[in-house]
Design brief:
15 strands; 40% helix; 312 residues; alpha/beta; four-stranded antiparallel beta sheet; 9 helices; elongated; nine-stranded mixed beta sheet
Length: 312
């Protein structure tokens, strides 16, 4: 048995969701694919896949083995790319994971520029609301962390920002403009359920920080009428006048400039945050990944500046 080939076939079966689909993708016959996976299981002495008439599912052993196999195959690709190409002729794949809001609003404006510079390097982007928990599975994790973030990982800071409180003018006309943090207790709250735990305290309280010195944080009892990990959904609901929402100042800028949203309680913020490019621990950094990190560092200020509205 060719163990390396068997690993590649096993990974493709999982990715394609079946033996026949994997066989088509790899230009092999289905019986060969099935036999190679069976021989791999026999060699390992454990079942990797649960087969039913409808679908395949990874066993616990199969899931753990898949993570190791992906890392091994990736290292092999890196070694081949390093031997075959110089930094000036990058090739291969960079596997990236990012939360939906970062994939759409942070990464998307830069991908076409990257492709124009490095057409032989494919960006394989996975979107996951909890990307920060998957750092070791990908080459680069685009993630957001608060001021108190102190994880033991390699991470390059890319952008710093603040989260503020906003609402639509029509909503504020109906419900009144909050003048103090505790006024938010009377308002409908659109809650981001992926928000940093640090800023949400037990009892569905919203914690705000003052921008003025020596002013303590305020904890406000809020009444969520909508909750989601989708920033786009929450922003649309806020623009439509459903309630107040905490969001990144950067994401709110266009809406604020067009008068669709109003920044309320401007002397208070929800949190300060940093967007990081995090790297898996203990893995050699391929040339293409290093170049991509340098590219992000260079492009982030330019991309963000282009998204900011020009207000005269």
């Amino acid at each position: 048995m060719d163990r390396l080939q068997a690993m590649k076939i096993f990974e493709r079966v999982v990715e394609e969701g079946g033996f026949a689909a994997a066989a088509r993708a790899m230009d092999m016959s289905p019986p060969v694919v099935t036999r190679m996976v069976a021989e791999l299981e026999q060699h390992l002495g454990t079942r990797l896949l649960q087969r039913t008439t409808r679908k395949l599912a990874l066993t616990d052993a199969g899931d753990a083995y898949l993570q190791r196999v992906r890392a091994i195959l990736h290292e092999i690709d890196d070694a081949e790319a390093a031997a075959a190409a110089s930094t000036r002729d990058l090739r291969g794949t960079i596997r990236i994971v990012a939360a939906p809001v970062l994939a759409t609003n942070f990464l998307a404006p830069m991908v076409s520029i990257w492709h124009a510079r490095h057409p032989k390097v494919m960006l394989d982007v996975c979107v996951d609301s909890f990307a920060s928990s998957r750092v070791d599975e990908f080459d680069v994790t685009i993630m957001v962390a608060g001021e108190d973030y102190d994880a033991n990982i390699v991470a390059r800071p890319l952008l710093q920002g603040e989260a503020i409180v906003v609402a639509a003018p029509g909503y504020l006309e109906r419900r009144g403009i909050p003048r103090e943090p505790q006024d938010l207790a009377k308002h409908d709250h659109l809650r981001d359920s992926s928000a940093p735990v640090r800023a949400m305290v037990p009892g569905r309280k919203l914690r705000l920080q003052s921008l003025l010195p020596l002013v303590p944080d305020e904890d406000i009892d809020v009444s969520p009428v909508l909750q989601s990990v989708s920033t786009e959904l929450l922003m649309r609901a806020a623009v439509d006048g459903m309630g107040v929402v905490v969001t990144s100042r950067l994401l709110a800028e266009d809406h604020l400039a067009r008068g669709e949203l109003v920044h309320i309680l401007p002397s208070w913020i929800f949190s300060r945050y940093t967007i990081y490019a995090a790297l898996p621990s203990g893995r050699m950094l391929p040339a293409r990944t290093k170049v991509f990190l340098d590219f992000l560092t260079e492009q982030v200020p330019l991309a963000m500046a282009e998204q900011r509205p020009q207000v005269s």
